[in-house]
Amino acid sequence: MAFTVTTIKKTIMGNQRCNQLLVVADAATQAVATGLQYIDFVTVAPRSMASAAGHFKLNVDASGTAANGTLAITGVANGDEMFIAVYGK
């Protein structure tokens, strides 16, 4: 299974690119391609969450291997929804 990722908006803030995503979890762990070459930081706003133990790792895939521009999400439940803003290059 894979997460459903919808890109809501792509913009530039200062010297950072910002992609706003809506992510719906279909499994507990997944890597999300953000559309950036490198992630500097993220902000997460839960929309509908059954779990409170979500972990987000920048620039790695779900197995922990370096993968620039990828956001690894672990500890979420099937059906969890969150808005994520990723900032980077």
Provide the CATH top-level class.
Mainly Beta
Mean pLDDT: 91
CATH architecture: Sandwich
What spatial order of strands do you see in the largest sheet? 1-2-7-4
Discrete helix count: 0
Helix content: under 10%
Beta-strand residue fraction:
over 45%
By DSSP, the count of extended strands is 7
**SSE series:** EEEEEEE
Named CATH topology:
Immunoglobulin-like
Distance N to C terminus: 28 Å
- Largest beta-sheet details: 4 strands, antiparallel
Helix/sheet category: mainly beta
Uncertain runs with pLDDT below 50, 5 residues or more? none
Domains, number: 1
Essential attributes:
Immunoglobulin-like, 3-stranded antiparallel beta sheet, globular, 4-stranded antiparallel beta sheet, mainly beta, 7 strands, single chain
Structure, described:
This protein is mainly beta and 89 residues long. The protein has a single domain, classed as Sandwich (Immunoglobulin-like). Helices cover 0% and strands 63% of the residues. The chain has strands at 4-13, 16-24, 30-33, 39-48, 55-60, 66-74, 81-88. It has a 4-stranded antiparallel β-sheet with strand order 1-2-7-4, with no helix packed on it. It has a 3-stranded antiparallel β-sheet with strand order 3-6-5, with no helix packed on it. A hairpin with a 5-residue loop joins strand 5 (55-60) and strand 6. The radius of gyration is 12 Å and the shape is globular. The mean pLDDT is 91.
